[in-house]
Each structure stands twice: as structure tokens, then as C-alpha cells.
Amino acid sequence: MCMSRFHKVVEATDSTRISVCDLDGGVHMVSLIAYEGPPVEVGDWIVVHSGFALARAEPAEAEAAISELAALTEKGGA
Predict the structure, then answer these.
(1) Distance CA 52, CA 35 (A)
(2) pLDDT at 77 (0 to 100)
(3) How many CB atoms lie under 10 A from the CB of residue 10?
(4) Which of 17, 43, 56, 78 has its CA 20 to 30 A from that of 10?
(5) Three-state DSSP class for 56?
(6) Burial of 49: CB neighbours in 10 Å, binned 0-12, 13-18, 19+
(7) pLDDT per residue over 49-65, tens digit each?
(8) How many CA atoms lie within 13 A of 24 on its CB side?
(9) Rounded Cα gap, residues 67 and 28, in angstroms
(10) How confident is the model at residue 78 (pLDDT cuts 50, 70, 90)?
(11) How large is the average pLDDT for residues 61-73?
(12) Cβ atoms of residues 19 and 9 within 8 Å
């Protein structure tokens, strides 16, 4: 099963791809081919699905979702 997850941009490689850090600390290259929005910058939170950046997320939104996911994981619900 694939699911979208929040990632933090760690390097804006070029106009077609970026390096992101996932919640587990892994760094991955993702494509910007499906992304429509203002240019992404280092430190931005984005939603990634199957290797494609889909949308930018507000930092507070991303951090709240990450906290909720962590709480569910601790309870065994995720």
C-alpha cells in the first residue's frame, strides 16, 4: 500500500527534482513533475506520494500531522 507522507526539503537539486528527508531520517530524491505551486525551498514541508512531490504544506499543519501520527504509532494504532 502506498500513502502520501510529509517530507522536509533538504536540497533543491534543479527544477525537476529535490532531495527530501522523510520522518525516519532517510534522504530521497523526488520528482517535481506533478508539483504545481511556487518553487520549493530548503526547509519547506511537502507532501510526497510514490516519489512525486504533490503539494506544499504549512509547517504547523505538517508538524501537527506528524505529532498525531507519532501518538497513534505509540498506541499501536498505525
Answers:
(1) 8
(2) 57
(3) 14
(4) 78
(5) strand
(6) middle
(7) 999 999 999 989 888 88
(8) 3
(9) 22
(10) low
(11) 83
(12) yes
CA distances from 32 to 22, 24, 73 (A): 16, 21, 29
Q: Which three cell numbers stand for residue 67?
A: 505529532
Q: Tell me: pLDDT of 68 over 60.
A: yes
What are residue 38's phi and psi, to 5 degrees? -65, 155
β-pair partners for 70: none
How does residue 2 score in pLDDT terms, banded at 50, 70 and 90? low
The answer to whether the beta carbons of residues 73 and 66 sit under 8 Å apart is: no
Answer whether residue 42 shows pLDDT above 70. Answer: yes
Cα–Cα distance, 51 to 41 (Å, whole number): 18
State whether residue 17 is helix, strand or coil.
Answer: strand
C-alpha cell at 17: 527534482
